[in-house]
Amino acid sequence: MSAISSRPATKILVLGAAGRAGRSVTSNLLALGDFDRIFLADNDAEGLNKLIADLPGSPVSPRFLDAENERSLRERMGEADLVIGCLGPFYKHERRIVEAVIDTGRDYISLCDDSEVTAEALALNEEAESKGVTIICGCGISPGISNLLACRAASRFQSLESIELTLYLEPASLLGAGTIDHILKSFSERAPYYHHGPAKARAGSWEEYAEFPPPLGRQSVSFLAHPEPLTLPAVLRGVPEVRFKAGVGGRTKSLALQTMAWIGGNGQSELLGIILRSAARRFACTESASCLSSIKVTASGVEDGREVQKILGLVGDYYHTSALMMLVAIERWKSGRLPAGVHSPEQVLNDQAVFSRLRSLGLRFLIAASKDRASTPDRPPAAKID
Q1: N or C: where does the chain have the smaller number of CB atoms within 10 Å of the terminal CB?
Q2: Is residue 3 part of a domain?
Q3: What is the CATH classification number for the domain harbouring 278?
Q4: Which residues are paired to 311 by β-bridges?
Q5: How far apart are CA 115 and CA 118, in angstroms?
């Protein structure tokens, strides 16, 4: 696979720039500097104008984007060298965006956290590789940092038995519309996990309590549809189990969101979906500006003849942490050290330099290890695997 040569100065297009994720990514890009122009694209003209007004003297230009219009999408891409995907919910747009970047020959780095769309994008690897296009799906806190922590936690085992990923989101802020849509969709689906092969469980099922780093503490989590169990087994070859669970706003709020998702799932009614999303936003939000989140990865296996459990974790603002992971991926792309094709983060960003850079940007990883592995909760029995 061919790598792209280093680019001293580039033009970047941020899709979904007026959203919470897009704004955070843009501010971090401007702090990095060394770009000819950053095009900020969204269909929210008012949000774009406000964003531009907050960035006087910056090399940014607003662009109206109708993501449903193929011509509009390709015109916007034609101006840039690299496209940044912050346009959630990703199940609505990501497949068309990936096809468009391949068609236009642009590289693409995305925050995509939808499991189905990630699988569809990875299936286009050969086409992207033949066009010399580089695509990385899932460069946020989860997937993204979660994948890299899983690989790091698993790296020293003689025999790896399982990887458990748990995400907690404390929605004490106005969550972005794309985030709410993603949560509702993910709770309405069959959640992928890996048990000696691909398997699925009902999202919201197999609830348990997970201990997150302070100040979050003990929180309820359950199966949620996410990409990590789809992509990690390809890198952690031979791992018997990979599971992903998540909680949102404590047990009461998680159950309420699950109920809303189950009521409105399977595309029953567009109007019902709108009503439920509106209710979810009101239910999840307060006036705080932060959105505290945590990812924890627990790897179990054998090291030096002993059963060991290694735990890596991270706590931080959901959008800011995701933006820092995106920034590191952009820096790696800019260096010209990424191969063509469609990749998950752990395939091309799993090295010490990435962790060092994230630490230099202010992220602090928490590490714990136990020589005597604690007992774990019951897992879905074979009869439940489908």
Answers
A1: C
A2: no
A3: 3.30.360.10
A4: 298, 368
A5: 5
Dist CA 300 CA 36 (whole Å): 46
pLDDT at position 186 is: 72
Model pTM greater than 0.70?
A: yes
Which helix (H) or strand (E) segment holds residue 150: the answer is helix 145-154
Task: Tell me the average pLDDT of the chain.
Answer: 85
The alpha-carbon radius of gyration of the chain (Å, integer) is 20
Question: Does a structural domain hold residue 6?
Answer: no
Q: Extract the residue ranges of the chain whose pLDDT is less than 50.
A: 1-5, 266-269, 271-272, 274-276, 279-281, 283-288, 375-386
Which pLDDT score is estimated for 7? Answer: 59
Alpha carbon of 59 to those of 63, 83, 328, 349: distances in Å? Answer: 13, 16, 20, 28
Instruction: Select from 263, 252, 154, 246 the least CA-distant residue to 206.
Output: 246
Beta strand 190-195 with 306-317: parallel, antiparallel or unpaired? unpaired
The bridge status of strand 37-42 relative to strand 292-303 is: unpaired
Instruction: Please tell me the distance from the alpha carbon of residue 191 to that of residue 105, in angstroms, as a whole number.
Output: 33
The letter for the amino acid at 114 is D
pLDDT of residue 271: 43
- 78 residue type, one letter: G
**Which pLDDT does position 249 carry in this prediction?**
77
Domain count, the chain: 2
Give the end-to-end CA distance of the chain in Å, rounded to a whole number.
Answer: 35
66: containing domain: 11-140+323-360
